[in-house]
Amino acid sequence: MNRLFGAKSSGPKPTLNSAIANVDTHIESLDVKLAKLNAELTSYQSKLAKMRDGPGKTALKQKALKVLQRRKMYESQRDQMQQQSWNMEQAGMMQDNLKNVMTTVDAMKTTNKSLKQQYGKINIDKIERMQDEMQDLMEVGNDIQESISRSYDVPEDVDEAELDAELEALGEEAELEGLAGEAQGTPSFMMDEVKPPEFIDEPPETGKVKEAAG
pLDDT tens digits, residue range 72-91? Predict the structure, then answer.
């Protein structure tokens, strides 16, 4: 039986890339044959153009027609081989795309499983309560900031122009007192302390004050 139908091949099965390579090699060999036939046809055409009609020209023309038939046959084979190669390349691209899709699906499954495990440990109610507490604390903080940053306005019955004039007068008075204090040797801020209080008619005697202190 093996002699009639052949034994089973135990070698590795051909891959798509090896099949494409074989077809491309066959196409290259056909291109070489076609180049030789084109050169022969060019030579015949050149000779026929110079020959007169007769048996010699007719015989040469028959040879040129046979070469032309062979060229058409090779061109037909080359076209078929190119189509086969293109079909196999498309199949290879589809196979690669399918592998990429399967890889993406596996990665998505793994990620989905991991996300389920992670999100399963999260209590959304606790997160919402925490968010509510944070919002309440932020509102309290805003109220505190608003309260301590409150400005105290000047009473309505006080004229700001009068306050400005009084402030300017105080500045001038302070300058004059400073000049006077420098001239007398006593600082201006101590001059009022030297004077006796207004409710005492006579200043106390120094000796008596010392006896009383003693």
Answer: 999 999 999 999 999 999 99
